[in-house]
Amino acid sequence: MRPITAAIMIVLLSACRAHKATPTESVAKVDVVAQAPKASELKPLVTVAFAFDSSAVAGPISAPIDGETKYYLVAGYADLQGAAAYNQDLSLRRAKAVAAALVGQGAHAIAIDIKAHGSSGPICTEARKACHARNRRVVVYSHQEAPHAK
């Protein structure tokens, strides 16, 4: 092994040891569901808004974590600005961040379906800041069907 390669490996190993998992990373095991229930068939519990180009959840989620809700669909969205692939990834990161917050509040990770919509399904299509802000969201729905049942 060349000295430069060995030095790079040592730096990478040191970085890995120093890295502490964030709540979002702890939910990485939650699968992205290709056939989650349709949102129109579900009861929306809460909508979480996001800042431009951010997947950080600001504060606790106000979705009720109780015995009545068996499963959750966490649907992430991005605004209409930017590349489609980037917005798809951003909406997934937002949905995972909200799922992590729900788990932190007592929901079971296995009971959460995650769906990333990217910039599809906008609430508002006008080219205004306020309109774009409304599209940067995650909607948490409750449903009774087991995840991955379809």
What's the overall geometry?
A: globular
Helix and strand run: HHEEHEHE
What ranges have pLDDT less than 50 throughout 5 or more consecutive residues?
Answer: 1-34
Count every beta strand, where a strand is a DSSP E run of 2 or more residues.
Answer: 4
Mean pLDDT: 76
CATH architecture: 2-Layer Sandwich
Distance between the termini: 50 Å
- Find the CATH superfamily: OmpA-like domain
- Rg over CA atoms, rounded to whole Å, is 18 Å
What summary fits the major beta sheet? Answer: 4 strands, mixed
> Total number of helical segments?
4
Give the strand content.
Answer: 15-25%
> What is the C-level CATH assignment?
Alpha Beta
Query: CATH topology, what is it called?
Result: 60s Ribosomal Protein L30, Chain: A
Give the helix/strand class.
Answer: alpha+beta
Strand order of the largest sheet: 1-4-2-3
Give the count of structural domains.
1
User: What is the share of helical residues?
Assistant: 25-40%
Give your account of this protein's structure.
The protein has one domain: OmpA-like domain (60s Ribosomal Protein L30, Chain: A, 2-Layer Sandwich). Helices cover 32% and strands 17% of the residues. The chain has helices at residues 3-18, 23-26, 84-104, 129-135, and strands spanning 43-49, 71-76, 112-116, 137-143. A four-stranded mixed sheet has the order 1-4-2-3. The N and C termini lie far apart (50 Å).
